[in-house]
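Translate structure to sequence.
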């Protein structure tokens, strides 16, 4: 009550209502201020919570028990869903490795920041030093940061995680199939290195080492939690699996009902359990948000070495939901309602602004950030809706589709589809190129995107086409030969 303006306001109220005691007026005023404060800032009371993101590679929508897998057991992920929230309409930002990962870490559509496709060992580009990663958002708040797993945003020193906000790094610089033993690549790839921080600790990993990757990433993650339990931290675990070639440790070999692929998923599920157990043992589970999702859908041409996106259409490398809609589970005891489900659309670009909000960090204000804070969805706020009126689905720089609410509109574009039978035993089957015309789908009634209802809803087509025009103006579209006004360049080494 020391503020003179506040005191004056209270005095005016007392003069107007002389029968009310000054104490009552003060108490009422304080209650109002508290209410307004809660409305303005609904973030959890705990300051500087920990964040763990577990990000798998090429995992299908159905490849988790709680998401409908008929024969892959994932008890730890299922338990995580029972204790947290399951998102049914959560998307990767693009259906390929590097593009998807840069979107997660920067909160931007991949073509916004100039990263497309899957960067290989010959690439001279990577994440631009001017971009801000999640690690760099939380670092000023005193967070310890680490990544154990696949990076894939540039393998040259300028692009490594330790140059982009991470204190520690251990893992592969790109996909585990970018090595001399790739079944269809011939001698295109050099030896596959294993890196610690900025040092190559093994220049030539073999299948023997690949079989230990999931275990090694998990052990590093647990050690990091044990070491940093008394300070805030951000831990990023982007698993190399289940991207082909598939490898699994002896402890899970032959354990599933779905062959080697199922074994690999079971080991990832074990990893999730180990990480969450470490949080419990250190007494920090109730101050830690854990997020599990994947970078894109299954690589269907690999058949029995690939997952399943059912009931969704197609898989990796396409803008159909099978390529970009991912299993997503989030847990935070006491903050996220247990056993809850969210059917609102969200995307990996939303994780950075949400973590910024929860940590007290700052979203960059000098550039466009496409993601939105989805804490109201995560926390089960009554009546919470997706903060996005529209989500854009690009392949490279080609705008393939847009989604708004229950509606998804595909524009004419080519896409790959299985020619006949998929491959087996680690060797892929052939793809063919197909093409879709303008097609509208009601995802509430037709999650498989099989019934084109464009003719029945011309008003919806018109509205979504107008939304697409905004993307073409902003981000460009090779399909209509448009250059975007607000794209940024990747980092580049000459």
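Result:
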């Amino acid at each position: 009550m020391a503020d003179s303006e506040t005191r004056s306001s209270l005095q005016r109220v007392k003069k107007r209502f002389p029968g009310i005691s000054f104490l009552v007026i003060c108490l009422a005023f304080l209650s109002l201020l508290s209410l307004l404060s809660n409305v303005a800032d609904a973030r959890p009371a705990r300051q500087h919570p920990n964040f763990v993101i577990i990000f798998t590679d090429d995992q299908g929508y159905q490849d988790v028990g709680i998401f409908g897998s008929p024969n892959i057991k994932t008890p730890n992920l299922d338990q995580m869903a029972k204790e947290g929230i399951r998102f049914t309409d959560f998307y990767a930002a693009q259906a390929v490795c590097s593009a998807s990962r840069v979107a997660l870490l920067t909160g931007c559509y991949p073509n916004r920041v100039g990263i497309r496709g899957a960067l290989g060992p010959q690439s001279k580009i990577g994440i631009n030093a001017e971009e801000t990663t999640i690690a760099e958002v939380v670092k000023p708040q005193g967070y310890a940061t680490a990544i154990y797993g696949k990076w894939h945003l540039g393998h040259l020193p300028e692009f490594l995680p330790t140059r982009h906000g991470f204190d520690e790094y251990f893992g592969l610089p790109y996909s585990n199939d970018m090595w001399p033993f790739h079944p269809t690549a011939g001698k295109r790839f050099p030896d596959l290195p294993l890196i610690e921080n900025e040092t190559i600790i093994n220049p030539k990993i073999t299948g023997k080492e690949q079989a230990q990757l999931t275990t090694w990433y998990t052990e590093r993650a647990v050690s990091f939690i044990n070491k940093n339990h008394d300070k805030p931290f951000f831990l990023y675990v982007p698993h190399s699996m289940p991207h082909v070639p598939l490898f699994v440790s002896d402890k899970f070999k032959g354990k599933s009902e779905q062959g080697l692929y199922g074994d690999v998923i079971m080991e990832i599920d074990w990893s999730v359990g180990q990480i969450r157990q470490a949080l419990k043992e250190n007494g920090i589970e109730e101050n830690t948000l854990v997020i599990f999702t994947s970078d894109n859908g299954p690589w269907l041409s690999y058949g029995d070495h690939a997952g399943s996106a059912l009931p969704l259409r197609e898989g990796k490398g396409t803008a159909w939901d099978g390529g970009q809609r991912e299993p997503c589970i989030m847990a935070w005891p006491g903050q996220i309602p247990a056993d809850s489900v969210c059917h609102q659309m969200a995307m990996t670009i939303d994780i950075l602004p949400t973590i910024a909000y929860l940590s007290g960090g700052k979203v960059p204000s000098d550039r466009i950030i496409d993601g939105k804070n989805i804490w109201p969805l995560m926390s089960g706020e009554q009546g919470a809706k997706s903060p996005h009126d529209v989500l854009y689905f690009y392949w490279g720089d080609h705008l393939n589709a847009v989604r708004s609410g229950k509606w998804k509109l595909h524009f004419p574009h080519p896409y790959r589809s299985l020619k006949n039978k998929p491959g087996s035993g680690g060797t892929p089957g052939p793809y063919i190129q197909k093409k879709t015309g303008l097609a509208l789908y009601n995802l509430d009634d037709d999650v498989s995107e099989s019934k084109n209802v464009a003719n029945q809803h011309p008003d919806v087509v018109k509205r979504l086409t107008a939304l697409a025009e905004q993307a073409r103006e902003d981000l460009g579209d090779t399909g209509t030969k448009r250059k975007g006004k607000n794209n940024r360049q990747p980092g580049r080494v000459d």
